[in-house]
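Example 3.2
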Amino acid sequence: MAARAWWMVAVAVALSGASLAQPAKTKEPAAGADKEKLIGAWHLVSMKEPAADGKLHDVADRTGTLIYTRDGHMSVQIMYPKSEAALSNNYVLNGYEASFGSYEVNEKAHTVTHHVMGSLTRQLVGKDLTRVYRFSEGRLIIQSARPDEHWSVTWKHY
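Structure, written as tokens:
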């Protein structure tokens, strides 16, 4: 009788497609699920800014972290080198850039909008910063959607 019960369990497992020897499969993000691809921690690979000739050029010696959480929060921090420690503008204060808030992804337009809740530069608080994104060779490239801002930042997952 015990042998028959064991055989029935084995048949039920075989018919269900389950295997006791295989680990559970993790769910992979759908090919078009850009929000899923954004989620996680990213480190700064490179930044490009316009030079005097108007073309984008690599800017060296900056470090940073960009984080997107599954529940819709974001944070970005970038530290500029000592030679730019006095740099201050709408995004940077004394050579440091930092903001946090929530975000929304528009996969059709390839944009991510950062809803700034807090920032080192207080004039960004309450602003919606729309960024154009793309993925290339395992990297995330972000640039401003504003026609008057010409910069590009490349990030790689930690």
